[in-house]
Specification:
Chain lengths: 283, 439, 340
């Protein structure tokens, strides 16, 4: 029984990370209908900046703040410079562009900080089955996700962002500054992604640390429905716990296969994810 | 229609022709070896070109990318001193990102395009095993392979290939015997990489501590979460944990054990026991708000095995020697045991090159390797001889102290791959002055 | 005269011509370049398969590498365990294995759209190679399988092995391309494009959308299986470390670079895939940069090129060539302002 309990706790904290990174993907998808494959690279660069700041100043939280700021700035820059020009070019172009960006940023981080792993602090004490650091991770994600959901659902800014994504023409007619909303959406998503990175990376940071996490985050986002933030949170936590059970009871080598199996099973029954809304009508 | 009928006829005819080809897996009757008696590629009057494949980028780069840096520093030192037998050594390093497909491509590039004289220190079991047959067929000397797998020691099948690193079985025997002598009756757990590192080490360990082992777990280098394995090992009650892991995973083991409150006696094999690397990886977490331990304390008491001079060996003449080279040629790099691994390898190759003489052929360098005369920086002798191409034959057992120094627990012992005993050897170790190469 | 012959024969003749040219080329270049030529070959068929799936049929697949994985391991296992089979049988079986896997994947993915399909195929690319861990005795885990392929007939033993391999690879590739070209030109090609452009309209016109999408997956993954089998044949190795997510992404990027929706684009993409890596490596060496920089430079440049292509030349290389061709063929309007 203790094993089960321990596995659940471990799955909860890793699931929180998948949920956070998945949330950043979903925010962008809702805003611009693009899956941002460069998200792990943006989170990676922000975290490397945090690493350098912490190394120079000795303060973890200063580094943390730097990561969020840098992440937001990068998100805004990517939207304006890369995604905006490709708005009409088809979804494949946006995928390729963000893939290219992923390659560039990962390589650049290797150039600046080298390919060797560097030790990367936890936010709090990491000792214990469900440590202070784990608790912080779960709480941070829950608070952030709630904040984002509340923003979208109850504020006028959120309404405007949703309008800009859902029907930009009409929104423009109604006075919504669509361009600004899209940029804001990307900035917000990148900030959430940077948070996810800071939580996912410890104990070691290297250019390829976030690769596997990203695949699971994308799986979580797809599972929950790419246009549903709450679904992604649920999907992320469930995936984290599920994969933790697989890893502990069946063997860690089965984790990627298990993720695939879960995904296929869910999508076979609900092709738009557990909570997603199907957008096309079948004839 | 006529055209489709003739198309079918052509297809059938080709099928018959193709079926006449031999089975894809069968070895043809006369598989030719390399031609001897030709001038060796990669050798001129003033230069000898050698090559290697290393993971300079990608997931395995951390740690291993520095080996070639160390080797290059030694080659620069030798070249500045006039080279070996009047030839400078040109060292070509190709990145294979630990991807076996890329390894095959870059090795073919080195052999066909760069026309290397020899391959020195090809790194990785899963990578190098893919080019083993190719190098043998092409007759390229394949020296000092950077891996502890047993397959490099097969003089019948691969006469060109020579090991370097102590193989995992031998090292497992040294570890097993030490544990049996010093931790008799205690429960032992194993955490191993899920490839030949694990299988070969177990062959050695089981010869001594099979009845003490209560749990065996493996990890996959692609998966950095070892909590399930460590939890299971804790649940099994193992008081001694043998970690056949690369440095990143040795560090993860230490941190994860700390996290779940598991305090076994850790025994780490040479591939993961570089104190400088480990300290660099875990020290950060000691200064963490909340923990009371210091960086050194996290590593104190860890037992490791080693067969090369340690960077912390204050009274080892080879350490000082390599330290000088480091200071002159690569001062910006951290002076770690991984760097020294590459430096000793380069030095050993240069020794073989010198022994092969001015009239340099591929056969002569391989004769020099298997002569058994190569003695140098290692703490144990090589296993090179007519019937064995095994590298270092044993290891020394050490322990990390709180102040970061290393304390020798058991002097170097040597053994074989089978069930021979682990015994001390008493030959005096040569100093840099004894085997001077240049200057 | 050529117009009178059925398209199949035209394609076969063109393929034969290409093969002859290729054989001559391999004699003119050194053995290592022959290896590169062969590498372009198997990448070409992999990207061509993807062109059919993603370019013609609009299904974004990030998991093409998984089908190459299947093809490679099929050849590896056959060479090791059934050594009597000639290499042709092994390659055919690799193609078939890829096709079967594609059938299953297509059936599972038939109802998925856009990013959902992308996510599912990405999970496939990550998850499938992990199966080697599960069956370590059969599939040798992380180390992978290593083998030597004997395919040269006794009479041709004097030809260097890389040259012979290049011939075999390109023979298989050209045959497969003939099949693909016929499919693309014929009814299947039209059906694929119809489904891509407007599923509802296609369905109303009597096209069975689900079946078409599955068929696209089948053909594309059969090409992937063949490509993987050829890679295994060429390199004598099959290991999970070769079939990373990066491979699948590179294939997709090569397709876009070469030009979506065109089989010629697959050729440019494959050449770019091989030679771009070579050129960036050479640049890095020429500028003798610090290790950290030089190690990562090829990837960085590759990413920059992708971004530039997508921003500035969205139709890829083939699109650019087509524009050039049109401009060359059409005479410049006269000064009196002829209507276009």
């Amino acid at each position: 029984m203790t094993t089960f309990f321990n596995l659940t706790l471990a799955g909860l904290s890793s699931g929180a990370v998948y949920a956070a990174l998945g949330l950043s993907l979903v925010i962008i998808y809702r805003a611009t209908r693009v899956v941002n494959f460069a998200q792990p690279a943006l989170a990676l660069i922000s975290s490397y900046v945090a690493y350098s700041v912490t190394k120079d100043t000795g303060s973890y939280w200063l580094g943390f703040a730097a990561a969020i700021v840098v992440g937001t700035v990068l998100g805004v820059a990517v939207e304006r410079l890369l995604v905006r020009p490709l708005r009409d070019a088809g979804e494949l172009s946006a995928i390729i562009a963000t893939l290219g960006l992923l390659l560039v940023l990962q390589a650049v981080s290797g150039m600046i900080w080298s390919n060797e792993p560097h030790a990367f602090s936890y936010a709090f004490d990491f000792r214990g089955r469900f440590s202070a650091a784990d608790l912080f991770a779960v709480l941070a994600v829950v608070v952030t996700a709630s904040g984002v959901l509340l923003l979208f659902k109850f504020t006028s800014l959120g309404l405007r962002m949703r309008a800009a994504a859902f029907n930009p023409e009409v929104a423009r007619l109604l006075g919504v500054r669509v361009g600004v909303m899209l940029t804001l959406g990307w900035g917000l998503a990148a900030a959430v992604g940077s948070l996810a990175g800071m939580l996912a990376i410890p104990p070691f940071i290297s250019p390829t640390t976030l690769d596997e996490v990203f695949v699971f985050a994308l799986t979580a986002a797809v599972l929950g429905g790419l246009d549903n933030p709450l679904g992604t949170i649920v999907g992320g936590l469930a995936l984290g716990i599920g994969l933790s059970y697989v890893s502990g009871l069946l063997g860690p080598e089965l984790v990627p296969l298990a993720a695939l199996a879960i995904l296929v099973a869910v999508l076979a029954v609900r092709p738009a994810g557990l909570f997603g809304r199907a957008t096309a009508r079948r004839v | 229609m006529r055209s489709s009928r003739s198309a079918i006829a052509i297809a059938l005819a080709s099928a018959l022709v193709l079926a006449a080809c031999g089975g894809a897996g069968e070895t043809p009757a006369n598989s030719g070896g390399a031609q001897n008696g030709e001038p060796a590629p990669g050798v001129t009057d003033t230069e000898v070109v050698i090559g290697t494949h290393q993971p300079l980028t990608g997931p395995a780069a951390p740690g291993y990318s520095k080996i070639s840096v160390g080797s290059r520093a030694v080659y620069d030192y030798i070249n500045d001193g006039g080279g070996i037998n009047g030839r400078k050594i040109t060292y070509k390093v190709e990145d294979d990102a630990y991807n076996p497909t890329k390894t095959v491509e870059v090795v073919k590039k080195l052999v066909l395009e760069e026309k290397i004289f020899a391959m020195v220190g090809g790194l990785g079991t899963s990578t190098h095993s893919k080019v083993l047959d190719y190098l043998t067929t092409e007759g390229v000397p394949d020296l000092l392979v950077s891996s502890g797998a047993l397959m490099w020691d097969s003089p019948q099948k691969h006469p060109n290939t020579f090991g370097y690193q102590v193989d995992y079985t031998r090292e497992g025997k040294v570890q097993g015997q030490y544990i049996k002598d010093n931790f008799a009756g205690k429960k032992v757990g194993l955490l191993m990489q899920n490839d030949d590192i694990g299988t070969d080490s177990q062959k050695g360990l089981d010869q001594f501590i099979k009845d003490q082992v209560v749990d065996r777990k493996t990890y996959d280098p692609a998966n950095t979460d070892v909590t399930p394995q460590i939890s299971a090992l804790q649940a099994s009650g193992a008081e001694v944990l043998v970690c056949e892991c690369i440095p990143a995973f040795a560090a993860l083991t230490i941190l994860t054990s700390l996290k779940i409150g598991y305090k076994p006696q850790l025994v780490v094999s040479s591939i993961g026991a570089d104190p400088a690397t480990l300290t660099g990886l875990v020290e950060q977490f000691a200064r963490q708000g909340g923990t009371q331990v210091s960086g050194g304390a996290l590593l104190t008491g860890i037992i490791g095995t080693r067969y090369l001079p340690s960077v912390r060996g204050a009274d080892d003449p080879w350490t000082s020697f390599f330290k000088e080279i480091h200071a002159k040629y690569i001062p910006q790099e951290a002076f770690t045991d991984t760097l020294v691994y590459g430096m000793v390898m380069a030095y050993t190759f240069a020794q073989a090159l010198k022994a092969a003489g001015r009239d340099l052929t591929r056969q002569k360098i391989m004769d020099a390797m298997s002569s058994g005369e190569l003695k140098g920086p290692g703490l144990t002798p090589f296993g090179f001889g007519k019937d064995s191409h095994a590298g270092y034959t044993g290891a020394l057992v050490f322990q990390l102290a709180a102040d970061g120094s290393v304390k020798t627990l058991q002097e170097a012992k040597v053994t074989d791959r089978e069930s021979g005993e682990v015994k001390s050897y008493s030959e005096k170790r040569l100093t840099p002055q004894d085997v001077k190469l240049v200057g | 005269m050529l117009n009178k012959l059925p398209p199949v024969v035209v394609h076969l003749l063109a393929a034969l011509g290409c093969l002859v040219l290729l054989v001559l080329l391999t004699f003119a270049t050194d053995p290592f370049t022959n290896l590169r030529i062969a590498t372009v070959g198997y990448y070409l068929i992999a990207v061509a398969g993807l062109a059919l799936l993603t370019g013609f049929n609009g299904q974004v697949s990030l998991g093409h590498g998984a089908f190459m994985f299947i093809g490679a391991y099929t050849v590896a296992l056959l060479v090791k365990r059934v050594p009597a089979f000639p290499i042709w049988a092994d390659l055919l079986l690799a193609t078939a294995a890829g096709g079967v896997a594609g059938l299953l994947a297509g059936a599972a993915a038939a109802r998925l759209r856009g990013p959902y399909l992308a996510g599912a195929t990405l999970a496939l690319a990550v998850g499938l190679p992990a199966v080697t861990q599960r069956f370590p005795d059969l599939l040798a885990g992380s180390n992978g399988l290593s083998f030597t392929v004997n395919s040269q007939p006794a009479g041709l033993r004097s030809i260097p092995s890389t040259q012979w391999q290049a011939w075999i690879v390109w023979l298989a590739v050209l045959l497969a391309l003939v099949v693909l070209a016929n499919l693309a030109r014929g009814k299947l090609g039209r059906t694929l494009r119809a489904v891509r452009d407007d599923e509802v309209a296609a369905s109303l016109a009597g096209v069975h959308v689900g079946r078409t999408k599955i068929l696209a997956f089948l053909v594309s993954s059969a090409c992937g299986g063949l490509a993987g089998g050829l890679q295994a044949f060429l390199l004598g190795t099959a290991a999970p470390g070769s079939f990373t997510v990066a491979l699948s992404l590179s294939l997709l990027a090569a397709l876009v670079l070469g030009g979506l929706g065109s089989l010629w684009g697959a050729l440019w993409g494959a050449i770019a895939l091989v030679y771009f890596q070579v050129w960036t490596d050479d640049i890095a060496e020429m500028l003798s940069l610090r290790n950290d920089i030089s190690d990562n430079l090829p990837l960085a440049l590759y990413g920059v090129v992708l971004i530039v292509i997508v921003l500035a030349f969205p139709a890829g290389i083939q699109g650019g060539l087509r524009k050039l061709w049109v401009r060359v063929r059409r005479p410049v309007p006269s000064q009196r302002g002829e209507a276009s």
